[in-house]
Amino acid sequence: MIKCDFKDSDDPKIQIEASLDLLNQINDLHKQNKTIELDFGSVNWLLPCSALLLSSRISELTAQGQHIKIIESTNNKVAKFLREIGFPLGNSSKKETHCPITHFKGNVNKEINKVLENINENLHKNFGDGVNYLIGELSDNIDAHSKFTYASLMAQYYPRKRFFDIGVLDNGLTIPGVFDKAKITFKDDCDAIRQAMEGVSTKNEGGRGFGLRTSKKVAIEGLNGEMHIYSRAGGILINPKRREKYVKLQKNPLIGTLVYMRLYIPKKRLNIYEYTE
After folding, report:
1. Is 2-274 a CATH 3.30.565.10 domain?
2. Count of other CB atoms within 10 angstroms of residue 185
Protein backbone atom coordinates (compact mmCIF):
# COMPACT_ATOMS: atom_id res chain seq x y z
CA MET A 1 0.00 0.00 0.00
CA ILE A 2 1.19 3.50 -0.87
CA LYS A 3 0.25 6.14 1.67
CA CYS A 4 -0.51 9.44 -0.04
CA ASP A 5 0.73 12.26 2.14
CA PHE A 6 0.38 15.93 1.17
CA LYS A 7 1.09 19.01 3.26
CA ASP A 8 -1.83 21.41 3.63
CA SER A 9 -0.17 23.97 1.40
CA ASP A 10 -1.21 26.27 -1.45
CA ASP A 11 2.35 26.06 -2.83
CA PRO A 12 2.26 24.00 -6.07
CA LYS A 13 5.98 23.18 -5.76
CA ILE A 14 5.46 21.33 -2.49
CA GLN A 15 2.56 19.27 -3.81
CA ILE A 16 4.12 18.58 -7.20
CA GLU A 17 7.26 17.15 -5.64
CA ALA A 18 5.19 15.00 -3.26
CA SER A 19 3.25 13.73 -6.29
CA LEU A 20 6.43 12.88 -8.19
CA ASP A 21 7.58 10.76 -5.25
CA LEU A 22 4.24 8.92 -5.28
CA LEU A 23 4.49 8.40 -9.05
CA ASN A 24 7.91 6.83 -8.57
CA GLN A 25 6.41 4.37 -6.07
CA ILE A 26 3.50 3.62 -8.41
CA ASN A 27 5.85 2.96 -11.33
CA ASP A 28 8.00 0.65 -9.22
CA LEU A 29 5.00 -1.50 -8.25
CA HIS A 30 3.81 -1.52 -11.86
CA LYS A 31 7.18 -2.79 -13.06
CA GLN A 32 6.93 -5.59 -10.48
CA ASN A 33 3.44 -6.52 -11.75
CA LYS A 34 1.99 -5.93 -8.30
CA THR A 35 -1.46 -4.63 -7.37
CA ILE A 36 -1.33 -0.94 -6.58
CA GLU A 37 -3.27 0.39 -3.60
CA LEU A 38 -3.30 4.14 -2.91
CA ASP A 39 -4.37 5.35 0.50
CA PHE A 40 -5.74 8.92 0.43
CA GLY A 41 -7.29 8.48 3.87
CA SER A 42 -5.29 11.21 5.62
CA VAL A 43 -5.27 13.71 2.72
CA ASN A 44 -6.87 16.99 3.81
CA TRP A 45 -5.87 19.22 0.89
CA LEU A 46 -5.03 18.53 -2.73
CA LEU A 47 -4.18 21.06 -5.43
CA PRO A 48 -5.09 20.51 -9.09
CA CYS A 49 -1.41 19.93 -9.92
CA SER A 50 -1.31 16.86 -7.67
CA ALA A 51 -4.69 15.57 -8.81
CA LEU A 52 -3.60 15.96 -12.43
CA LEU A 53 -0.25 14.20 -12.07
CA LEU A 54 -1.64 11.24 -10.18
CA SER A 55 -4.82 10.97 -12.19
CA SER A 56 -3.02 10.91 -15.52
CA ARG A 57 -0.72 8.05 -14.55
CA ILE A 58 -3.46 6.07 -12.80
CA SER A 59 -5.74 6.43 -15.80
CA GLU A 60 -2.98 5.48 -18.24
CA LEU A 61 -1.99 2.37 -16.27
CA THR A 62 -5.63 1.36 -15.78
CA ALA A 63 -6.12 1.45 -19.55
CA GLN A 64 -3.16 -0.94 -19.82
CA GLY A 65 -4.87 -3.42 -17.48
CA GLN A 66 -3.11 -2.50 -14.22
CA HIS A 67 -5.38 -2.98 -11.19
CA ILE A 68 -5.34 0.08 -8.93
CA LYS A 69 -7.35 0.37 -5.72
CA ILE A 70 -7.98 3.80 -4.19
CA ILE A 71 -8.93 4.41 -0.56
CA GLU A 72 -10.83 7.70 -0.33
CA SER A 73 -9.92 10.54 2.01
CA THR A 74 -11.74 10.58 5.33
CA ASN A 75 -12.06 14.33 4.80
CA ASN A 76 -15.51 14.64 3.21
CA LYS A 77 -14.61 17.87 1.38
CA VAL A 78 -11.55 16.30 -0.22
CA ALA A 79 -13.43 13.12 -1.13
CA LYS A 80 -16.28 15.15 -2.66
CA PHE A 81 -13.85 17.38 -4.58
CA LEU A 82 -12.01 14.40 -6.07
CA ARG A 83 -15.28 12.80 -7.14
CA GLU A 84 -16.46 16.05 -8.75
CA ILE A 85 -13.30 16.48 -10.79
CA GLY A 86 -13.49 12.89 -11.98
CA PHE A 87 -10.44 11.64 -10.12
CA PRO A 88 -8.77 9.55 -11.36
CA LEU A 89 -10.29 8.53 -14.70
CA GLY A 90 -11.68 11.89 -15.80
CA ASN A 91 -15.08 13.54 -15.92
CA SER A 92 -17.03 15.60 -18.46
CA SER A 93 -19.32 17.37 -15.97
CA LYS A 94 -19.29 21.15 -15.64
CA LYS A 95 -18.83 23.04 -12.37
CA GLU A 96 -18.74 26.75 -11.64
CA THR A 97 -15.21 26.83 -10.23
CA HIS A 98 -13.36 24.03 -11.96
CA CYS A 99 -12.92 22.14 -15.18
CA PRO A 100 -12.76 18.42 -14.40
CA ILE A 101 -9.78 16.31 -15.30
CA THR A 102 -9.70 15.54 -19.01
CA HIS A 103 -7.55 12.76 -20.49
CA PHE A 104 -7.02 12.48 -24.22
CA LYS A 105 -4.99 10.54 -26.75
CA GLY A 106 -5.92 12.03 -30.09
CA ASN A 107 -7.41 15.38 -31.08
CA VAL A 108 -6.16 17.80 -28.44
CA ASN A 109 -7.99 20.87 -29.74
CA LYS A 110 -11.34 19.08 -29.67
CA GLU A 111 -10.94 18.28 -25.99
CA ILE A 112 -9.57 21.71 -25.15
CA ASN A 113 -12.57 23.45 -26.72
CA LYS A 114 -14.87 21.58 -24.35
CA VAL A 115 -12.83 22.83 -21.40
CA LEU A 116 -12.78 26.41 -22.69
CA GLU A 117 -16.56 26.53 -22.90
CA ASN A 118 -16.84 26.05 -19.16
CA ILE A 119 -13.97 28.39 -18.33
CA ASN A 120 -15.41 31.29 -20.31
CA GLU A 121 -18.70 31.11 -18.45
CA ASN A 122 -17.19 31.59 -15.00
CA LEU A 123 -13.90 33.48 -15.06
CA HIS A 124 -13.58 37.12 -14.01
CA LYS A 125 -13.87 39.40 -17.04
CA ASN A 126 -10.46 40.98 -16.33
CA PHE A 127 -8.74 37.77 -17.45
CA GLY A 128 -9.82 38.77 -20.94
CA ASP A 129 -8.59 36.23 -23.48
CA GLY A 130 -5.52 35.40 -21.40
CA VAL A 131 -6.61 31.99 -20.14
CA ASN A 132 -7.97 30.96 -23.54
CA TYR A 133 -4.71 31.96 -25.16
CA LEU A 134 -2.54 30.07 -22.67
CA ILE A 135 -4.55 26.86 -22.87
CA GLY A 136 -4.67 27.03 -26.67
CA GLU A 137 -0.96 27.73 -26.99
CA LEU A 138 0.06 24.89 -24.71
CA SER A 139 -2.32 22.37 -26.25
CA ASP A 140 -1.12 23.29 -29.75
CA ASN A 141 2.46 22.60 -28.70
CA ILE A 142 1.52 19.23 -27.25
CA ASP A 143 -0.36 18.27 -30.39
CA ALA A 144 2.32 19.43 -32.80
CA HIS A 145 5.59 18.60 -31.09
CA SER A 146 5.57 16.29 -28.08
CA LYS A 147 4.58 13.05 -29.87
CA PHE A 148 2.56 12.11 -26.80
CA THR A 149 0.39 9.03 -26.40
CA TYR A 150 -1.45 10.36 -23.35
CA ALA A 151 -2.19 13.87 -22.16
CA SER A 152 -4.27 15.44 -19.38
CA LEU A 153 -5.62 18.84 -18.42
CA MET A 154 -7.36 20.35 -15.41
CA ALA A 155 -8.26 23.82 -14.15
CA GLN A 156 -9.50 25.24 -10.85
CA TYR A 157 -10.76 28.76 -10.15
CA TYR A 158 -10.51 30.25 -6.63
CA PRO A 159 -12.70 33.41 -6.72
CA ARG A 160 -12.13 34.32 -3.06
CA LYS A 161 -8.36 33.96 -3.35
CA ARG A 162 -8.53 35.68 -6.75
CA PHE A 163 -6.41 33.21 -8.67
CA PHE A 164 -6.86 30.49 -11.27
CA ASP A 165 -4.76 27.31 -11.50
CA ILE A 166 -4.34 25.36 -14.70
CA GLY A 167 -2.18 22.37 -15.55
CA VAL A 168 -1.36 20.64 -18.84
CA LEU A 169 0.49 17.33 -18.73
CA ASP A 170 1.71 14.98 -21.46
CA ASN A 171 3.83 11.82 -21.59
CA GLY A 172 5.71 12.84 -24.73
CA LEU A 173 9.36 13.34 -25.61
CA THR A 174 9.95 15.97 -22.88
CA ILE A 175 11.72 19.25 -23.51
CA PRO A 176 15.21 17.80 -22.90
CA GLY A 177 14.25 14.80 -25.05
CA VAL A 178 13.32 17.04 -27.98
CA PHE A 179 16.60 18.94 -27.52
CA ASP A 180 18.52 15.64 -27.53
CA LYS A 181 16.84 14.62 -30.76
CA ALA A 182 17.58 17.97 -32.36
CA LYS A 183 21.22 17.74 -31.17
CA ILE A 184 20.99 20.99 -29.20
CA THR A 185 23.61 21.29 -26.47
CA PHE A 186 22.48 21.85 -22.87
CA LYS A 187 24.15 21.42 -19.48
CA ASP A 188 21.30 19.55 -17.79
CA ASP A 189 17.53 19.21 -18.05
CA CYS A 190 16.96 22.50 -16.23
CA ASP A 191 19.11 24.25 -18.81
CA ALA A 192 17.12 22.70 -21.66
CA ILE A 193 13.90 24.05 -20.16
CA ARG A 194 15.53 27.46 -19.67
CA GLN A 195 16.56 27.58 -23.33
CA ALA A 196 13.07 26.57 -24.42
CA MET A 197 11.66 29.38 -22.29
CA GLU A 198 13.95 31.79 -24.10
CA GLY A 199 12.66 30.60 -27.46
CA VAL A 200 15.50 28.39 -28.68
CA SER A 201 14.31 26.66 -31.85
CA THR A 202 14.51 22.91 -32.32
CA LYS A 203 13.92 23.29 -36.07
CA ASN A 204 12.27 20.23 -37.61
CA GLU A 205 11.91 18.49 -34.28
CA GLY A 206 9.47 21.12 -33.04
CA GLY A 207 9.63 21.88 -29.33
CA ARG A 208 7.89 24.25 -26.99
CA GLY A 209 10.23 27.23 -27.23
CA PHE A 210 8.01 29.80 -28.91
CA GLY A 211 4.89 28.63 -27.08
CA LEU A 212 6.59 28.73 -23.70
CA ARG A 213 8.18 32.11 -24.34
CA THR A 214 4.92 33.82 -25.24
CA SER A 215 2.98 31.94 -22.59
CA LYS A 216 5.50 33.09 -20.00
CA LYS A 217 4.97 36.75 -20.99
CA VAL A 218 1.18 36.47 -20.80
CA ALA A 219 1.21 34.54 -17.52
CA ILE A 220 3.94 36.39 -15.65
CA GLU A 221 3.77 39.92 -17.03
CA GLY A 222 0.12 40.09 -18.04
CA LEU A 223 -1.50 38.14 -15.22
CA ASN A 224 1.12 38.58 -12.47
CA GLY A 225 1.18 34.80 -12.24
CA GLU A 226 3.65 32.04 -11.66
CA MET A 227 4.73 29.09 -13.82
CA HIS A 228 5.94 25.65 -12.85
CA ILE A 229 7.49 23.65 -15.67
CA TYR A 230 8.73 20.12 -15.03
CA SER A 231 10.18 17.96 -17.79
CA ARG A 232 12.16 14.76 -17.34
CA ALA A 233 14.70 15.45 -14.57
CA GLY A 234 14.43 19.23 -14.48
CA GLY A 235 12.10 21.95 -13.37
CA ILE A 236 11.88 25.73 -13.46
CA LEU A 237 9.65 27.82 -11.21
CA ILE A 238 9.02 31.46 -12.11
CA ASN A 239 7.28 33.76 -9.64
CA PRO A 240 5.45 37.06 -10.28
CA LYS A 241 8.68 38.99 -9.68
CA ARG A 242 10.17 37.01 -12.62
CA ARG A 243 12.66 35.25 -10.39
CA GLU A 244 13.57 31.76 -11.54
CA LYS A 245 14.26 28.76 -9.33
CA TYR A 246 15.69 25.54 -10.72
CA VAL A 247 14.71 22.10 -9.43
CA LYS A 248 16.60 18.88 -10.19
CA LEU A 249 14.55 15.69 -10.19
CA GLN A 250 17.16 12.96 -10.58
CA LYS A 251 15.48 10.84 -7.87
CA ASN A 252 11.94 11.23 -9.21
CA PRO A 253 12.08 12.31 -12.88
CA LEU A 254 8.81 13.01 -14.65
CA ILE A 255 7.80 10.86 -17.61
CA GLY A 256 6.76 13.74 -19.83
CA THR A 257 6.19 17.44 -19.27
CA LEU A 258 3.98 19.36 -16.87
CA VAL A 259 3.20 23.04 -17.35
CA TYR A 260 1.32 24.41 -14.36
CA MET A 261 0.29 28.04 -13.99
CA ARG A 262 -1.27 30.10 -11.24
CA LEU A 263 -2.85 33.22 -12.70
CA TYR A 264 -4.12 36.17 -10.67
CA ILE A 265 -7.07 38.38 -11.60
CA PRO A 266 -5.56 41.56 -13.11
CA LYS A 267 -6.66 45.01 -11.98
CA LYS A 268 -7.90 45.82 -15.47
CA ARG A 269 -8.99 43.69 -18.41
CA LEU A 270 -5.98 41.99 -20.00
CA ASN A 271 -5.03 42.83 -23.56
CA ILE A 272 -2.99 39.82 -24.67
CA TYR A 273 -1.65 41.59 -27.74
CA GLU A 274 0.60 43.63 -25.48
CA TYR A 275 2.44 40.42 -24.59
CA THR A 276 2.19 38.07 -27.56
CA GLU A 277 4.62 37.89 -30.49
Report:
1. yes
2. 8
